[in-house]
Amino acid sequence: MDDNAIVCRCSDLTVKDVRNLIAKGFTTFDELKRISRIGMGPCQGRTCAQLVLRELSIATGKQISELKPGTYRPPVKGIKLGAICECSTGGEVHD
After folding, report:
1. What CATH number has the domain bearing residue 63?
2. Are 59 and 19 in contact (CB under 8 A)?
3. Which residue stretches of the chain are H helix?
4. 95 lies in a domain?
5. Is the entire prediction scored with pTM above 0.90?
6. How would you label 27-65 residue by residue, b for 16+ Cβ within 10 Å and e otherwise?
7. Tens digits of per-residue pLDDT, 55-95?
8. Which domain holds residue 84?
9. Ramachandran quadrant class, 5 (left: phi over 0; alpha: psi -120 to 50; beta: rest)
10. 93 domain residue, yes or no
């Protein structure tokens, strides 16, 4: 694969970027994610995860099936308790 090919469009990382990070000792998807934010953009890794796992597989000599795809946590947005209360009481807030 061409070194300048984009692996992660969300974080604008190329194959060369990923290979350099692996060469520095980041050999799991989660480590690469923490150092580069790969897989944390709007696509949540749907575009780049398999490409990154492929590069990890080549570098480590492990099968892709042996590698962990990373820990995913859904985006969370706080909500005020009053909003929950309004929803459960049909719009009426009780003290």
Report:
1. 1.10.10.1100
2. yes
3. 15-23, 29-36, 49-60, 81-88
4. no
5. no
6. eebebbbeebebbbbeebbebbbebbbbbbeeeeeeeee
7. 999 999 999 999 998 877 666 777 788 877 776 666 555 55
8. 6-88
9. beta
10. no
